[in-house]
């Protein structure tokens, strides 16, 4: 079975993945490249390159025996495809990833949510779910994935044009370098602009809290009712987890959309350098402090302290940075009892100093 390069490009198979697959095929001529488009409880649906109908698949036993990471939605895999009827086609191997979005998992260390996407869109809305701190955390999570982040503000029909422009301007200043879009999946405003970003063969994952209208937005971009939707609760504007699994859709324009269940909180497992790139303004301040070992807790010549005092750095952004940093450090050192004892004392003192500073400013 031959696959021309144009088809591979349209389906988003990277040359690096193609080369890896060809080395596998030398040992098993029945292998074909396929992409995982659905995952639920270690059962998969795959689209085999060049075929229209999805097939069911399961991993070979060596994934478990060798403690190999299981494939995720968006992964390209090598499938053994032989003539005849098969309830489940066997997944022989996962091809190398061009990107992977991961979050902390207490049992396995981390969990891969989605793989091989070019963009990850953080979807929020113009109701009470619009939260700058949460966007910061989401961008920190995306930073290590190697995908390009987007911010989509849905439900623009709920606010006036002035309010909409105000939020977009403020977020554009805060998150420079990140494309920000306002849209309404209800009246289709701004939806076409989002769809026009992506080229054939590219993939985008939509990520957001329940209730932000993610499924409705995906339906609007697809142009069909592919996903079921529910109204949010009027009492608190929260959603009801319409999506319970991860799934990939190939759009009419030739790009792929990955839908994810509504996420309750963004968690981290990556290195500290990821955090510094997300909070680059804070990183610049820390690098300018008088002392290289500045703890940013009242030392003379501390640029972080000066920025907090003059208001160029908000207390909430600094607190969010410290909170994410603590989460990353905790997971990196969760078995080190001495580390946690020392950190508890350090954070207790820092919190006391922060409360005192806020009190002196009249912010109780």
Textual characterization of the structure:
The structure is a single chain. The protein has helices spanning 5-11, 15-25, 62-65, 132-143, 161-174, 191-195, 214-222, 272-278, 280-287, 303-310, 315-332, 337-360; strands at 31-40, 43-48, 55-59, 76-80, 89-94, 100-105, 109-115, 119-125, 148-154, 179-182, 203-208, 246-250, 256-259. With 364 residues, it is an alpha/beta fold. It has three domains: 5-96, Beta Barrel (OB fold (Dihydrolipoamide Acetyltransferase, E2P)); 101-259, Rossmann fold; 272-360, Orthogonal Bundle (Ribonucleotide Reductase Protein R1, domain 1). A hairpin with a 2-residue loop joins strand 1 and strand 2. Helix 4 crosses helix 8. The longest helix has 24 residues, at 337-360.
Topology, pairings included?
Layout: H1 5-11, H2 15-25, E1 31-40, E2 43-48, E3 55-59, H3 62-65, E4 76-80, E5 89-94, E6 100-105, E7 109-115, E8 119-125, H4 132-143, E9 148-154, H5 161-174, E10 179-182, H6 191-195, E11 203-208, H7 214-222, E12 246-250, E13 256-259, H8 272-278, H9 280-287, H10 303-310, H11 315-332, H12 337-360
Parallel strand pairs: 3-5, 8-9, 8-11, 9-10, 11-13
Antiparallel strand pairs: 1-2, 1-4, 1-12, 2-3, 4-5, 6-7, 12-13
């Amino acid at each position: 079975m031959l696959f021309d390069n144009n088809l591979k490009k349209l389906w988003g198979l990277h040359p690096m993945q193609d080369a890896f697959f060809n080395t596998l095929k030398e040992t098993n001529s029945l292998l074909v490249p396929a992409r995982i488009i659905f995952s639920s409880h270690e059962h998969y649906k795959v689209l085999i390159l060049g075929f229209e109908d999805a097939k069911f698949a399961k991993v070979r036993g060596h994934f478990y025996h060798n403690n190999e990471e299981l494939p995720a939605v968006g992964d390209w895999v090598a499938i053994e495809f032989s003539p005849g009827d098969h309830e489940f086609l066997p997944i022989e191997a996962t091809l190398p990833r061009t990107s992977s979005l991961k979050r902390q998992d207490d049992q396995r260390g981390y969990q891969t949510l989605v793989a091989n996407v070019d963009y990850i869109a953080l979807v929020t809305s113009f109701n009470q779910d619009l939260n700058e701190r949460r966007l910061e955390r989401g961008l920190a999570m995306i930073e290590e994935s190697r995908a390009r982040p987007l911010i989509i503000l849905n439900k623009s029909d709920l606010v006036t044009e002035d309010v909409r422009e105000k939020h977009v301007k403020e977020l554009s200043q805060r998150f420079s370098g990140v494309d920000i879009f306002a849209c309404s999946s209800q009246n289709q405003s701004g939806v076409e602009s989002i769809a026009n970003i992506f080229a054939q063969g590219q993939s985008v994952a939509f990520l957001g809290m329940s209730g932000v209208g993610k499924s409705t937005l995906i339906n609007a971009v697809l142009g069909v009712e592919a996903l079921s939707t529910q109204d949010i609760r009027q009492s608190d504007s929260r959603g009801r987890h319409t999506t319970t699994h991860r799934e990939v859709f190939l759009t009419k324009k030739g790009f792929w959309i990955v839908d994810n269940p509504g996420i309750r909180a963004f968690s981290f497992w990556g290195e500290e350098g990821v955090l510094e790139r997300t909070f680059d303004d804070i990183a610049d301040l820390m690098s300018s402090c008088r002392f290289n070992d500045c703890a940013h807790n009242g030392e003379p010549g501390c640029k972080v302290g000066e920025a907090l005092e003059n208001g160029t750095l908000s207390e909430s952004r600094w607190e969010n940075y410290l909170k994410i940093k603590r989460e990353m450090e905790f997971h990196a050192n969760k078995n080190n009892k001495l580390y946690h004892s020392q950190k508890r004392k350090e954070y207790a003192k820092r919190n006391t100093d922060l409360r005192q500073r806020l009190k002196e400013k009249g912010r109780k």
